[in-house]
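Researcher: We're teaching a course module on how sequence relates to structure. For the next exercise, students receive a sequence and then see the predicted structure as tokens, so they can try to spot secondary structure elements on their own. Here is the exercise chain.
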Amino acid sequence: MKKNIVSFFLLLFLVGNSYAQSTASKHVSTFSIEAPQLKTHKIIWVYTPKSYSDSKKTYPVIYMFDAQNLFDAKTSYVGEWKVDEYLDTLKDKEVIIVGIEHGNEKRLEELTPYPHETYGGGKGDTFMQFIINTVKPHIDVVYRTKPEAEYTGIFGASLGGLMAFYATITYPEIFSKAGVFSPSFSVSTKIFDLVSNSEIPNTSKFLFLAGSKEGGSMVSNQEKMVTLLLKKGIKTTQIQNKIIEGGEHNEALWSSNFPEAFQWLMTPNTKN
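Model: And here is the predicted structure for the students to work with:
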């Protein structure tokens, strides 16, 4: 049991195998930026659409956690999401993806808005301040973005799923779309209190996904959160709730379901 819990919270901790071949698309680049809120520097990964260099268009942006695992097998010890490979196939719904690297041993600290009673953490909002006040302004200046909330989403899995959901509830003026894969709602019941006490715009969209074999309270907590949102008045057109039969808590689940989730999130809301 202890081994499973530690694996759950420290997933994606290790740096990828240095002998692996890079699989990142030519449309992916990285840069380092000071993170004064976190008293460190962070590596930021950016995917730009194939049409970017030959156009003057502006693009929606999705911010994603755990950048090491999104684009490149070389930096992911558990397999990558293949986000760039999928987006390279698209002829519409083009988007800029901004991946923020996790802090290795500080991942639990960074990606939990509330502390876990055993493992600590709880500095997730400081991490969000870094994204909102440092990363996003830089991206909006350097890249041709659509900076409004209507065109800005946030996406993650496990602790990253928890943070994507937290960000969209707490900062709806910044993020209107949340990809919430295998969310770690079990970290603290305060996330349910947050939703109960928040006003959620009818422009927000939430894509929830979990695997039936993830274990623990993953599926039941996700169902509980969806029920709570519906009781708050969120329309069914604003939510998708997917339970993948046989799905486990791993990159294979998240990678294989990213394309469909992306398509739904990037489709404009139906009139309520």
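Model: If you want an answer key for the exercise: Residues 31 and 143 are 13 Å apart (CA to CA). The first helix runs from residue 2 to 9.
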